[in-house]
Amino acid sequence: xxxxxxxxxxxxxxxxxxxxxxxxxxxxxxxxxxxxxxxxxxxxxxxxxxxxxxxxxxxxxxxxxxxxxxxxxxxxxxxxxxxxxxxxxxxxxxxxxxxxxxxxxxxxxxxxxxxxxxxxxxxxxxxxxxxxxxxxxxxxxxxxxxxxxxxxxxxxxxxxxxxxxxxxxxxxxxxxxxxxxxxxxxxxxxxxxxxxxxxxxxxxxxxxxxxxxxxxxxxxxxxxxxxxxxxxxxxxxxxxxxxxxxxxx
Amino acid sequence: xxxxxxxxxxxxxxxxxxxxxxxxxxxxxxxxxxxxxxxxxxxxxxxxxxxxxxxxxxxxxxxxxxxxxxxxxxxxxxxxxxxxxxxxxxxxxxxxxxxxxxxxxxxxxxxxxxxxxxxxxxxxxxxxxxxxxxxxxxxxxxxxxxxxxxxxxxxxxxxxxxxxxxxxxxxxxxxxxxxxxxxxxxxxxxxxxxxxxxxxxxxxxxxxxxxxxxxxxxxxxxxxxxxxxxxxxxxxxxxxxxxxxxxxx
DNA sequence: AAACTCTACCCGCAAAATCATGCAACAGAA
DNA sequence: TTCTGTTGCATGATTTTGCGGGTAGAGTTT
Lengths: 249, 249
Fold this sequence. Notes:
The structure is a homodimer.
Chain A: H1 3-17, E1 19-21, H2 22-29, H3 33-45, E2 49-52, E3 55-58, H4 59-62, H5 74-85, E4 93-96, H6 100-108, E5 116-119, H7 122-128, E6 135-138, E7 141-144, E8 149-151, H8 153-160, E9 164-170, E10 173-175, E11 179-182, H9 185-196, E12 198-204, E13 216-219, E14 226-228, H10 239-243, E15 247-248
Parallel strand pairs in A: 4-5, 4-9, 5-6, 9-12, 12-14, 14-15
Antiparallel strand pairs in A: 1-3, 2-3, 7-8, 10-11, 11-13
Helix pairs in contact in A: 2-3, 5-6, 6-7, 8-9
Chain A binds a DNA duplex through residues 3, 22-23, 31-35, 37-38, 53-54.
């Protein structure tokens, strides 16, 4: 295995898990501990990670004081992301919205995946770009500073010209009566266009947001094909959604 | 086996596997290691792949090394950015390319500025978004992992529909004979479209890149309205450009 | 708290692989 | 022919890697 390749893999792992143990790494890559230590030392010198006794930490992990962007309920969102990532197969075209849950999805993509992701969220695009083998397509238009996604007629036009296999939406509110709802007009328009442009709709949300609703309607429950939360499909609160014909992951 | 043929095969393999070992390659193709090294070196110079000790990596793979904290010649780029920022007035529409120099420009914008920035570079858009009062428009299309800007026909179409006041290009090479040149086909097409779509062209470059050229032509020197480097207009090396009718900042 | 153990760390070394360079041979085109 | 571009080889330099020996840290036991 090439040195640079190893270091790239290390960085990918660091970005994914926020920490790594050198012992695990050298087993995994089949090199001596010295080599691994040297790799970590080099990456640390370059400021790409922070070396500690026995392994290394992600830079963002220790800078948590500077970046107040502590994602709410991140552990749950990581679970959701892993489950959702398993739906994506090689060669697929995937439309995704923005939001912290989708951002976790972008981090959880398996390294070998070869798919095309289409997205209007700038932070998410940036995360996709860290992946070694996927293609990224940006939806262009004016950026909404509120939600940090591109919004407007041009964006919707671009989405309309797409026919994707999957659409992943991070949803802010979903309930049996109102379906999927949100509170930002521009974002709702974009999400509706994305649903129209995809064959299957996958909704991602933490369980806390279930059974709540907001003023603007995105789509009915019947339009949702798959629902992904941190809970198991057997959990009682998922029962009504299963009965509504939705696949629960 | 022909040289071109070999290199085409190498590129194909790189795109397929994201990495190759030089030893494997020269066995497979029946050439000496020197020849293989030279091939890889050439492809690396063309930016088609990244050569590392023992083989080569796909550009996307090694790109995991995201956002290098060490920008080459950053101090000079900050000087350039300050000078360039003074050209932008309230209400203007500004097209910008990507690159680290433009990124510095995005950081150097005065806080009160009210203008609209149109851009296809993801890191730069992110930087623009930190500004309190400017509007940001993203040019959408497939993301080139090489340059981290959106490239392609769709992007060029979107640019064509714009008529901006200013166009800021970070240029990689400029000289008296060849004008502005670069080495990435997709990027060149985007930059040409941007120049067409703007009333004034401002080129930003560190002095080190002046009086050099690359294979692909972007525009003639006569098309450049303003040239910004870290040097003063009175510096002797700027003299030829002044004589060519370019305003030097 | 002191002693002990275990792991991880640092340092220098040497072997192997890989690289850069200059040079000569060779083939094809003008 | 003459020129240009390509290839292989020899040489010495550089990089990478694993190993041994000594040291430092962290946790545990006494």
